[in-house]
């Protein structure tokens, strides 16, 4: 049973039955009536429906019932409110005239949008024509969801079926699974009434009515948002910038800043995998307001890296560090090393993590920026009311059916969104399909791995496994060991564990240049390298590594020491697969880490001045190869656990930061003494001492 998500923040939405409009307050400012709260699924991040949404609901209705008879009646007279509902793909609750008439959702197995009626929706349809919806008479007193009911006739598989009493009363809803069987989805029982059918509103309403009712409300929340920006701007006295993704939320935050008379520089994180409409929206908006654009661009690094690192997944997000965070970091330290105030369009209702995030924060990849979100507590409804009210020009993709704006093939996308991309941008989708086909062949995955979006997870996951089971291919999808081995640039033949020894045998000899150029990072007590013979010995106080040709032998005394082996593997695979994102360079505290091109044109990460390397490992913790690829592909093979990246012994970025803070505080008293040491020998000794500190 999936664990229920508890949102720390929810948005309450009400409905005025007299004016027949949704409201964000409990009493109607137009007629003064007390409004009824509508039971939205948490967090209640609802919005008004667009024309495209209504068309999608219509198509789902036609598919479900084979006719459009009753559709106009069920769609009601009011504006339509949509709210995201829990589902493994995409599903939205549909509220009309203050009542949920049903949900429309994308069925990944049928590749169709469908419409699932609520009890009220079913009653409305049946009042028009009792034959529109398939019915099955049941005698059981009560059923539970997922119960299977047998009937005396066969109904087409996947068809929606109302479960009714012999009296005609609707008791529940199910789906036919063929052969005279129905699986129960909802059970309403005979007395369960949804809403007060006797007080249904009869007035037609429009977006203009909703805007009019929210005039005072919007004035208040806009004033609060502007005051928030003004106070932070006055307190920081820094360059004001606005992060603009081309989406609706960042557009509203930007407009709030402009309405205060500010002229922020526009920071656009161009990942290189944005849809063309998003790029056009960014450039159009910048030109409209006459602002300066700063692009943190990843260029084509994604398309170069994906053939080496594999398909990014929800649990394997190497793309974020490579295409978004690394370019952002480089841009910020170049343009705003002394800091800046960054206005962001982040909202609490977008995700659980953002719901827990404060309105003011610093991002560890760009700590120079003080990020503020003036619309942190706003819902989609408030955002869109602002857009309509101020006649802004949002990204046209929203009106084509897109819920989110970002990388077009993001693994966090639903299958419904990916299906939409394939139809609206066939050329881009074909380019992505070719990459999926390449990896499907390399990993020996069936065609369903592509068609059903199973590539969106790197390791076994509940939803992926569930879909794979229904397709009868789970053994070809969840075979993670075989998959990870096939992802490697150099095949691992065997991993042998003998007591306190681990031996890794590769298919080819290990190129020891990786160690010669990065050895100071792991700060060994002793080390010996013979690159010609392919032999290396690296030792610390309680563990050691011996490399001979294609073998790595690691000896250790306690569990924590295994992290030394992991660090060596991170240095090795980073040497082989470096993407050139240069996050290591940007995060190097001593400025000694560099990425250079070798004679073959390959990116080679290395310490340019070993005497200045302090062994903080920031270049490892901020590297997409070391921190994502090795942790999610290599360590599972070492520890025989696809969730090895969750291990307790793993050291994280925040722990390194704490070490740095501790070291700075401890060394502050001796700062004058350090400043007196100007010769190179003393400086080298100073950095060696720091390295010892980080190796604790």
Whole-number tally of structural domains? 4
What oligomerization state is this entry in? Answer: single chain
CATH fold descriptor of the largest domain? Rossmann fold
CATH superfamily of the largest domain: HUPs
Assess the beta-strand content as a share of residues: 15-25%
Strand order of the largest sheet: 16-15-14-17-19-18
Span between N and C termini? 43 Å
Pfam families: PAPS_reduct
Protein name: 4Fe-4S ferredoxin-type domain-containing protein
GO molecular function, one term: oxidoreductase activity
Domain 4Fe-4S ferredoxin-type: 569-598, 603-633
How would you describe the overall organization of this protein?
With 696 residues, the protein is of the alpha+beta class. The strands form six sheets. The protein has a six-stranded mixed β-sheet. The chain folds into four domains: 120-193, no CATH class; 214-403, HUPs (Rossmann fold, 3-Layer(aba) Sandwich); 416-474, no CATH class; 488-653, no CATH class. The protein contains 25 helices and 27 strands.
Summary?
The chain is an alpha+beta fold and 696 residues long. It contains 25 helices and 27 strands. It folds into 4 domains: 120-193, no CATH class; 214-403, HUPs (Rossmann fold), CATH 3.40.50.620; 416-474, no CATH class; 488-653, no CATH class.
Q: In terms of topology, how is this protein built?
A:
Layout: E1 14-16, E2 21-23, E3 36-37, E4 47-48, H1 51-65, H2 71-74, E5 81-84, E6 91-96, E7 99-107, E8 112-117, H3 119-128, E9 134-137, E10 148-150, E11 160-164, E12 170-178, E13 181-187, H4 207-213, H5 215-236, E14 240-243, H6 248-259, E15 265-270, H7 276-289, E16 293-297, H8 301-309, H9 318-335, E17 340-343, H10 352-355, E18 360-363, E19 366-372, H11 380-389, H12 415-424, H13 426-443, H14 448-451, H15 462-470, H16 474-477, H17 480-487, E20 492-498, E21 501-506, H18 513-516, E22 526-530, E23 535-539, E24 544-548, E25 551-555, H19 562-577, H20 583-587, E26 593-597, E27 603-607, H21 618-621, H22 624-639, H23 653-668, H24 671-676, H25 680-694
Parallel strand pairs: 9-11, 14-15, 14-17, 15-16, 17-19
Antiparallel strand pairs: 1-2, 1-3, 4-5, 5-6, 6-7, 7-8, 10-13, 11-12, 12-13, 18-19, 20-21, 21-25, 22-23, 23-24, 24-25, 26-27
């Amino acid at each position: 049973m999936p664990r229920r998500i508890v949102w720390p923040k929810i948005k309450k939405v009400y409905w005025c039955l007299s004016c027949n409009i949704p409201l964000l307050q409990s009493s109607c400012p137009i007629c003064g009536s007390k409004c009824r709260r509508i039971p939205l699924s948490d967090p209640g991040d609802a919005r008004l429906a667009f024309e495209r949404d209504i068309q999608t609901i219509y198509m789902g209705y036609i598919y479900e019932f084979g006719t459009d008879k009753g559709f106009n009646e069920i769609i009601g007279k009011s504006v339509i409110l949509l709210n995201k509902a829990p589902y493994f793909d995409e599903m939205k609750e549909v509220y009309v005239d203050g009542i949920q008439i049903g949900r429309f959702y994308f069925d990944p197995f049928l590749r169709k949008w469908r419409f699932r009626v609520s009890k009220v929706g079913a009653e409305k349809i049946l009042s028009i024509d009792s034959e529109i919806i398939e019915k099955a008479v049941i005698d059981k007193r009560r059923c539970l969801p997922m119960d299977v009911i047998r009937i005396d006739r066969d109904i087409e598989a996947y068809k929606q079926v109302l479960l009714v009493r012999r009296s005609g009363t609707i008791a529940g809803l199910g789906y036919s699974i063929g052969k005279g069987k129905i699986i129960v989805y909802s059970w309403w029982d005979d007395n369960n009434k949804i809403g007060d059918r006797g007080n249904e509103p009869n007035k037609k309403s429009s977006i203009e009515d909703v805007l009019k009712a929210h005039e005072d409300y919007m004035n208040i929340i806009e004033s609060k948002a502007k005051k928030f920006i003004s106070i932070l701007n006055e307190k920081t006295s820094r360059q004001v910038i606005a992060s603009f993704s081309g989406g609706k939320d960042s557009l509203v935050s930007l407009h709030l800043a402009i309405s205060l008379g500010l002229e922020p520089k526009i920071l656009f994180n161009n990942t290189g995998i944005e849809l063309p409409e998003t790029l056009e929206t960014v450039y159009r908006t910048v030109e409209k307001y006459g602002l300066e654009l700063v692009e943190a661009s990843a260029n084509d690094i994604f398309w170069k890296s994906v053939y080496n690192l594999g398909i990014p997944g929800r649990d394997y997000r190497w793309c974020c560090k490579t295409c978004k965070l690394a370019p952002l970091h480089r841009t910020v330290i170049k343009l705003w090393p002394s800091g800046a105030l960054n206005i962001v369009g982040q909202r609490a209702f977008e995700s659980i993590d953002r719901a827990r995030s404060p309105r003011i924060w610093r991002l560890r990849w760009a700590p120079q920026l003080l990020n503020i979100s003036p619309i942190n507590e706003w819902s989609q409804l408030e955002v869109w009311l602002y857009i309509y009210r101020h006649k802004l020009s949002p990204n046209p993709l929203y009106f084509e059916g897109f819920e989110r704006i970002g990388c077009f093939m993001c693994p966090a996308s639903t299958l419904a969104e990916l299906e939409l991309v394939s139809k609206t941008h066939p050329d881009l989708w074909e380019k992505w399909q070719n990459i999926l086909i390449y990896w499907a062949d390399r990993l020996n995955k069936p065609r369903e791995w592509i068609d059903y979006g199973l590539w969106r997870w790197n390791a076994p996951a509940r939803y992926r496994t569930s879909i794979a089971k229904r397709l009868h291919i789970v053994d070809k999808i969840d075979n993670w060991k075989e998959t990870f081995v096939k992802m490697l640039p150099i095949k691992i033949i065997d991993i042998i564990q003998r007591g306190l020894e681990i031996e890794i045998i590769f298919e080819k000899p290990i190129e020891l240049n990786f160690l010669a150029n990065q050895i100071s990072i792991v700060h060994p007590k002793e080390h010996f390298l013979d690159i010609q013979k392919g032999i290396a010995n690296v030792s610390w106080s309680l563990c050691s590594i011996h490399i001979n040709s294609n073998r790595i032998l690691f000896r250790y005394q306690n569990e924590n020491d295994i992290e030394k082996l992991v660090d060596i593997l991170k240095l090795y695979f980073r040497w082989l697969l470096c993407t050139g994102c240069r996050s290591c360079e940007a995060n190097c505290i001593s400025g000694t880490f560099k990425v250079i091109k070798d004679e073959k044109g390959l990116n080679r990460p290395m310490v340019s001045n070993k005497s200045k390397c302090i062994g903080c490992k920031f270049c490892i913790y901020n590297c997409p190869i070391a921190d994502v690829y090795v942790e999610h592909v290599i360590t599972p093979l070492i520890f025989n656990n696809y969730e090895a990246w969750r291990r307790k012994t793993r050291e994280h970025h925040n722990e390194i930061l704490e070490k740095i803070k501790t070291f700075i505080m401890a060394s502050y008293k001796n700062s004058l003494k350090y400043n007196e040491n100007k010769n190179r020998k003393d400086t080298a000794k100073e950095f060696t001492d720091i390295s010892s500190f980080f190796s604790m």
